[in-house]
Amino acid sequence: MAKLKEGSKATLNPIQKKMLPVVTLPLPEDYPTSLRYALAKYAATAVAEAWDGLLELEEMGELEN
């Protein structure tokens, strides 16, 4: 289960909040298909953008397991 590091000033959007509890670091470049199915009520582009945001946070060192 990934999460924001304590003291992080980063904010998560609603989709990212649903993603983090079900993934572990390091994040794969492409989000898992199972995650896409779990978030089917959201537009595919919104899910992809949310995933890209999480990848950026990981690169910045803002996420931890």
Brief descriptors of the model:
65 residues; mainly alpha; 3 helices
Q: What does this molecule look like?
A:
With 65 residues, the protein is mainly α. The protein is 43% helix and 6% strand. The longest helix has 16 residues, at 44-59. The N and C termini lie close together (6 Å).
What is the structure about, briefly put?
This protein has three helices and two strands, in the order E-H-H-H-E. By secondary structure, the protein is mostly helical.
Summed up, the helix count is: 3
SSE-based structural type? mainly alpha
Q: Report the β-strand fraction as a percent range.
A: 5-15%
Rg measurement, Å: 11 Å
Strand order of the largest sheet: 1-2
For the largest beta-sheet, the strand count, sense and barrel status come to: 2 strands, antiparallel
User: Could you tell me the number of beta strands?
Assistant: 2
Summarize the helices and strands and which ones pair or pack.
Layout: E1 3-4, H1 14-19, H2 33-38, H3 44-59, E2 63-64
Antiparallel strand pairs: 1-2
